[in-house]
Design a protein that fits this description.
13 helices; Rossmann fold
Length: 307
Amino acid sequence: MRHLLLATLIAAAALLPGVAAAQELTFPSSFRQQTIATNGTKLHVRVGGKGPAVVLLHGYGETGDMWVPLAVDLSRDHTVIVPDLRGMGLSDHSPGGYDKKNQGRDVAGVLDALKIDRVALVTHDIGNMVGYAFAAQYRNRVTRIALIDAPLPGIGPWEEILKNPLLWHFRFGGPDMERLVAGRERIYLDRFWNEFSATPKRFSEAARRHYAKLYARPGAMHSGFAQFAAFDQDVIDNRAFLAAGKLDMPVLALGGEKSFGTTMATVMRATASNVQEGVVPDSGHWIMEENPKGTIALVRPFIAQSN
């Protein structure tokens, strides 16, 4: 009876909004997982579903595993491609190439390998920066793009955003910093998961353990720091993209209610001509952990318009 009661409570908890169960970080067997050589590196990629293609790009502190709920939902009528970015998750820890312009080419190589020409994009955090760089370089390959809760280096209110003391990690890196966090990856990452959440407990213990283990892999923290160290080059590249003209595909700019909020639309209106804005309610930065249902409700109808 005691075991039955415990099982019932666990099952009920898994149904609560914003509560991530451990299995939600695992893609179902309907998704194949493969390693794709692209642009001088190798990316770990999941592919599932059938229909118009959509690429989901994750950010720092997570991997492509963050997208499981959205990927499963979209795979009902889309081909869903979910890579781990260069140097993150199960992708190779390349010695360089972490500027987002180059990582945009990583994405193009993945699509070429899969023989997919045009895609919609859904991006979060660092994934916003890679997704924007991909869209700016390959404008005829992107049908629409939803960017969620992170700025773009050099675009819009970038200089003001940099003044936020919560973003000290943008300049944190180098060999001494790697020594400081070696063996303490969980402590370092907890800071992000806690401070950037509206409700930290919604970023589950299972998810924290899952990602901390991946970021403790050899070379993982070095690669993570390299994502931020490339921002100065990203500023130069993004301003060159903007000089070539604003994006003209439909853009959905989403911010967490307790995070970027409508500032995401301000960022994107500086570099895109067709911007819809939205706010993920009851959420900080970690939208798929804090309010996955609310995020899906905003993203799905926008992506469906590319069918």
